[in-house]
Amino acid sequence: MKEIGRVGFMDKPVPRPGPRDAVVRTTTALICTSDSHTVQGGIGPRTDLTLGHEGVGVVHEVGEEVRDFRPGDRVLVGAITPDWGDLACQDGHPSQSGGPLGGFKFANSKDGVFAEFFHVNEADANMAKIPDGVPDETAVYCSDMLSTGFMGAENGDIPIGGAVAVLAQGPVGLMATAGARLRGAGLVIGVESVPRRKRLARDFGADEIVDFSAEDVVEGVLRLTGGQGVDTAIEALGADATFQTAIKIIKPGGTVSNTGYYGQGEFVRIPRVEWGVGMAEKKITTGLCPGGRLRMERLLRVLEGGRVDPTPLTTHTFRFEEMERAFEVSDKKLDDVVKVMITFQR
Amino acid sequence: MKEIGRVGFMDKPVPRPGPRDAVVRTTTALICTSDSHTVQGGIGPRTDLTLGHEGVGVVHEVGEEVRDFRPGDRVLVGAITPDWGDLACQDGHPSQSGGPLGGFKFANSKDGVFAEFFHVNEADANMAKIPDGVPDETAVYCSDMLSTGFMGAENGDIPIGGAVAVLAQGPVGLMATAGARLRGAGLVIGVESVPRRKRLARDFGADEIVDFSAEDVVEGVLRLTGGQGVDTAIEALGADATFQTAIKIIKPGGTVSNTGYYGQGEFVRIPRVEWGVGMAEKKITTGLCPGGRLRMERLLRVLEGGRVDPTPLTTHTFRFEEMERAFEVSDKKLDDVVKVMITFQR
Amino acid sequence: MKEIGRVGFMDKPVPRPGPRDAVVRTTTALICTSDSHTVQGGIGPRTDLTLGHEGVGVVHEVGEEVRDFRPGDRVLVGAITPDWGDLACQDGHPSQSGGPLGGFKFANSKDGVFAEFFHVNEADANMAKIPDGVPDETAVYCSDMLSTGFMGAENGDIPIGGAVAVLAQGPVGLMATAGARLRGAGLVIGVESVPRRKRLARDFGADEIVDFSAEDVVEGVLRLTGGQGVDTAIEALGADATFQTAIKIIKPGGTVSNTGYYGQGEFVRIPRVEWGVGMAEKKITTGLCPGGRLRMERLLRVLEGGRVDPTPLTTHTFRFEEMERAFEVSDKKLDDVVKVMITFQR
Amino acid sequence: MKEIGRVGFMDKPVPRPGPRDAVVRTTTALICTSDSHTVQGGIGPRTDLTLGHEGVGVVHEVGEEVRDFRPGDRVLVGAITPDWGDLACQDGHPSQSGGPLGGFKFANSKDGVFAEFFHVNEADANMAKIPDGVPDETAVYCSDMLSTGFMGAENGDIPIGGAVAVLAQGPVGLMATAGARLRGAGLVIGVESVPRRKRLARDFGADEIVDFSAEDVVEGVLRLTGGQGVDTAIEALGADATFQTAIKIIKPGGTVSNTGYYGQGEFVRIPRVEWGVGMAEKKITTGLCPGGRLRMERLLRVLEGGRVDPTPLTTHTFRFEEMERAFEVSDKKLDDVVKVMITFQR
Fold first, then answer.
1. Residue of B nearest to A269 (CA)
2. Looking at CA atoms only, how far is residue B38 from chain C in angstroms?
3. What chain D residue is nearest to B151 in terms of C-alpha separation?
4. D contacts of C286 (beta carbons < 8 Å)
5. Does A93 or A1 have the greater pLDDT score?
6. B5-29: per-residue pLDDT in tens?
7. What does the H/E/C string look like for C132-163?
8. What is the DSSP track for C52-95?
9. Higher local confidence (pLDDT), B223 or D44
10. What angle do CA D280, D260, D339 make, to 5 degrees?
11. Which residue from B241, B312, D114, D342 puts its CA 20 to 30 A from A99's CA?
12. Contact: A295, D94; criterion CB under 8 Å
């Protein structure tokens, strides 16, 4: 990203690690819709910023205080790389270290992973070794998609056998669907209209689909839950209308768990009456993709144990040299794209 | 309440208890602003409905299956009297038994406590004996004011030494202020402009006051917290603007705990950017006054142990016969009223 | 059970329901090892007590206040049938209503389900309709085995991708294994030595087996977790030695979740040093099988959604008339028994 | 401490800070009974180790990467100084960073605070500025006594109006008593026999005292709770017998929150029957003094807001030069000692 609205290749020096940091040679990365938001100015002006926050690779160099990693290690790095001493971490909110959303550094406050090499702060705390049985093309999904999607399920406080609706089955929504299954939901309802995404939703664990182009979502969810509503609604789109639907379809005492990024408008609006005029014990939780080595190690264990296979999300793969075409596919949602993978020369 | 907008005295027969119920002879009651809302049609049309949900008295008659209470017992009854077998209770949300806000029966789905006698469902589960050391005039505050106000603090997940703001220092807000102290808050900021309520706020434990008529509340709270914001904001008014302020003044990872009843508008609005575009881990919880015997026994223990004395809230006392004048004072907020007490002949 | 150590058939009148109760005609039941404990005097002397607490059937008669069930409904009843108005329920512990373990009524404080008919207190709150797709032989596992086993996982506070060990793979342990998977554990280690149970453990989701007859369990678990220990250990046997192992194999900050019934000895012992001299943040939680309609409905949804199929636990089936032989098989653990099913004439 | 059983003054060089560390000139410190345990070999052999972990002082020197502190700042340092990037921190257990109890570094894995200067790792994350209104003699209590005692209350999950017993009213127990009040307990029972400590217990908020030299503790607690038992028992001694009592006096569903260090015996024993044979939902939690800047800042706010004044704990004060006499008083519990303060030349 050269400036708002303009991208292209640039030459930059290979970064050097500080004493506790590492530099990783990228092997595989994923394009995220938020990369496009950034280019469009979603997080404000940026100049000559390397994009990308979902990447894996091989350790190129480590700082002198790094204990657990060596050059040549195959590693996963979370999209969020907190400063672990920060007060927000001490308060249980590492993704908010250094200010709101402050753990989000790649392609925001520093260069991202769409480059041959990228820099990782606090390497011992923010990288994880990839087990032999897990290929890079699978592991790379942990950095953001699994971490964010599963967070949607975890924050939703799903009881075993509970009913869950996941609103929108994009990559994060699909991983929230998988996450709802991982937490033991008894009924998972995917809300989606795109045929490919509806099929993927079923594959990742949705028991039922409500197609919002064919049916009112509130009616559909009530129909599938005997008029009760769901215990948990996971918002995975980031739109005011979807958020409102989420409030409406949870039962009293239920939870709206937000994973969406709201990019527009002054307000996100709670429908007053369906919120029980503020008294129906309907909770709203939000979160930013959890990062850190422990999180990454646990997600890798989910992959290693064969619980979830995210690779069907990869609908397109391009070489790093084809980046511009890759972005075009992702931006314009061409060709029924779900997720675009970028591979680097090894 | 005879119909929307019209109140007056009526003769009704003394209620009779079902097998597990009780009938209580009222000794003391409190007017709640929600009584006025009801008269104005806030919960829809009602005909010949006895108002009032905050009351204490003496057991007049019990059903044959009631085990723990006898005529003559001095008892407290929660404003909320759940059906304890209901699925919402099994799910941890007794106030939502029988549907959203369904535990709220008095002056809603059945006659209230502004009468010489009132009926209590599931007496063993919904009444509590008042200890000798606690007068009726104190105990009556447990039924709603303490229970709701303290809930605001409890739902707010206040850490010991945490910073809390309580938005509006009406009776519920004042009890939320007391509740924040009870949970160990290190800094309690009361937001209020009325001099009498500002004084009461200090008496109930506010360390600082932000007067919204003299200062921007967001600025005031940031000033008092070194720019950090509070861990918890308790909304105790039920207004869109106040709710927005609450979102703005909590730090990332903080909680807005709502106690307010929102009576107007199609939406309650979340300010998008200050909400961290849905990713700053700012939680929103809501609740309806907890009821039930265990809750009431615990609140009575708070009074018995001298932790809180709610009686300074009583700014006016009327006899039952003076009910119309009492309502006028409460409705029109005459004479700097905080809370109006009604006493019955004993 | 006629008295301690003596069992046999007896004629008793068909029970009649109180106003909120129901009487169920039994179709299918399961023998639990605790039935044998009871016969041996484990819960004290009992005379002419009908045994059995895991049963399903068809509603025979309902009391006049029962709203949601009618004769002919096919129903599941939890092994634990709380008194929902009790203070322990109000405190979030329904299984403890009416005193410690007080929700456990069948074959304890009243007749159990090993009879043509059995009585259910608070039918609307303690029974659940069985969906058409779920046969009685599957549904009956919800009453105790799924509810208790899954509770072991739920109380264990398992993070997604976490490591869990389940100590002993009897019926409850196997359901705890399934439960650990349902909560998203990334690595589930079953501890067991009996070949059939080891195979079942794998089928229900154990990734690894530690055979305590072949290896020290502490060493085995450390080996499989890179020396870290597990996040959660579920004790599913009820033995002092196993409990000690559970403490030893969890990492600092981990949880021992107990499902076992400890029948012997004055003490259950915590190994002091491995417990971190009381400071390693190792938590110990316990529980008694959760009951109630909501729980049963959610467990039925787990079955209906095909998440878990408990029927491989049924190693033996007998007709009600063969009860004595059935008990013999269960008591003496003949023929590699796991779970004995009893069928009734329909 | 020169070796096990032998203490004395030693000359050591003034420590130098690493890039993120600080060195503090000690002004005030407190002797902890665990210092005596250490001398007696409680944590194994140590040679030429400076004792002491409760200290405050003035910043002498900071490393180049330290952002928020400068020489001359008056600072509080927690007894526990975690490595914040450690996996245990990422898991929510900072006191266990670097292994079980690994956050406990002072006078354990490095020199302690009984010296003119001491070293602080990760200064920005482990130190807090002392507000002007809080003298060193008050602030020093935050490092361990308030942090550990309050933790006992926090881990105990005390409901507002709940009943709590605190077993032993030594310095930690007294702060647990204060902590139980801070969390809103309605009834706080102190268990103690020493007259001075009984008086202090009342001063710090105990409503009732059970003197174990005059009455059976279980009977006393049941008497004061109408036969119910307490919601929470805080063990603040570290003795097998006291731990057993704690299990016995909690109600089903209650919590034993441990703060005690268990120095003896192979086992700490749970009384099987009173534990509900493993099924009464009696939880056991443990912890090690929480450290870190956020914790310290919050505790300082508790002092600044006048919630608790710990200074009555200081029964004796000695100058640093009188250290040997100070230790003698503390070790031999001379002269009704509660807490011994050490002052340093300024």
1. B269
2. 29
3. D160
4. 275-276, 278-283
5. A93
6. 788 899 999 999 999 999 999 999 9
7. CCCCHHHHHHHCCHHHHHHHHHHHCCCCCCCE
8. --EEEEEEEEE-TT--S--TT-EEEE-S----TTSHHHHTT-GG
9. B223
10. 145
11. B241
12. no
- Check B284 against A288: CB less than 8 A apart: no
Q: Are residues D121 and D31 in the same domain?
A: yes
Do residues D258 and D337 share a domain? no
The reply to whether C16 touches chain A by the CB within 8 Å rule is: no
Mean pLDDT for chain B?
Answer: 96
- Measured CA to CA, the distance from residue D322 to residue D319 in angstroms comes to 5
Distance from CA of D169 to the nearest CA of C (A): 18
Average pLDDT for D72-96: 98
Q: Which residues of B touch D154 (CB under 8 A)?
A: 160
B178 and B281 belong to one structural domain: yes
Whole-angstrom Cα distance, residue D276 to residue C100?
Answer: 7
Asked if the C-beta of C90 comes within 8 angstroms of chain B's C-beta atoms, the answer is yes
Tokens of C342: 């009893």
ipTM of the complex: 0.96
Residue D78 placed within a domain? yes
In a domain, C3, yes or no: no
Q: How many domains does chain C have?
A: 2
Q: Average model confidence (pLDDT) for chain D?
A: 96
Instruction: Say if the Cβ atoms of C90 and B295 lie within 8 Å.
Output: yes
Task: Identify the domain boundary among C270, C286, C302.
Answer: C286
Q: Is residue C17 part of a domain?
A: no
Q: Is residue C15 part of a domain?
A: no
A226 lies in which domain range? 152-285
We report the CATH number of the domain holding residue C214 as 3.40.50.720
Instruction: Indicate if C201 and C232 belong to the same structural domain.
Output: yes
D59: burial class by Cβ within 10 Å (0-12, 13-18, 19+)? buried
Residue B49 has pLDDT above 80, yes or no: yes
The type of residue at D61 is E
Q: Which of D247, D271, D286 is where one domain is finished? A: D286
B and D: number of Cβ contacts within 8 A:
70
Query: Are C164 and C259 in the same domain?
Result: yes
* C115 plus C91 within the same structural domain: yes
pLDDT value of position B40: 81
- pLDDT value of position C158: 98
With a cut of 80, say whether residue C42 has pLDDT above it: no
Mean pLDDT, rounded, for D20-48 = 89
pLDDT in tens, A201-219: 999 999 999 999 999 999 9
Residues whose CB falls within 8 Å of the CB of residue D283, separated by 6 or more in sequence, listed in order: C283, C284, C285, C286, D157, D254, D255, D256
pLDDT at residue D28, as a whole number:
98
Contacts of C163 in chain A (CB under 8 A): 301
Q: Are residues A48 and A115 both part of a single domain?
A: yes
Q: Which residue has the higher pLDDT, C143 or A42?
A: C143
Q: In the complex, which subunits touch A with 3 or more CB pairs below 8 angstroms?
A: B, C, D
| CATH code for position B317 | 3.90.180.10
Closest residue of chain D to A81, computed from CA coordinates: D85
Question: A65 — contact with chain D (CB < 8 Å)?
Answer: no
B281 and B326 belong to one structural domain = no
From chain D residues 277-306, the ones with a CB under 8 A of any chain C CB are: 277-288
The answer to whether residue D95 neighbours chain C at the CB level (below 8 Å) is yes
Report CB contact under 8 Å: B281, A287.
Answer: yes
pLDDT in tens, D262-275: 999 999 999 999 99
| Neighboring chains of D (3 or more beta-carbon pairs < 8 A) | A, B, C
CA dist B33 and B260 (Å) reads 11
- Contact between chains at D295 and A90 (C-beta distance less than 8 A): yes
D332 touching B (Cβ < 8 Å) = no
Better-scored residue on pLDDT, C34 or C249: C249
Q: Which of A222-231, B286-295, C40-49, C257-266 has the lowest mean pLDDT?
A: C40-49
B160 close to A (CB below 8 A):
no
Find which of D34, D43, D264, D277 to mutate to test the C interface (most C CBs within 10 Å of its CB).
D277
* Token reading at C86: 């009790």
Q: What pLDDT score does A218 carry?
A: 98
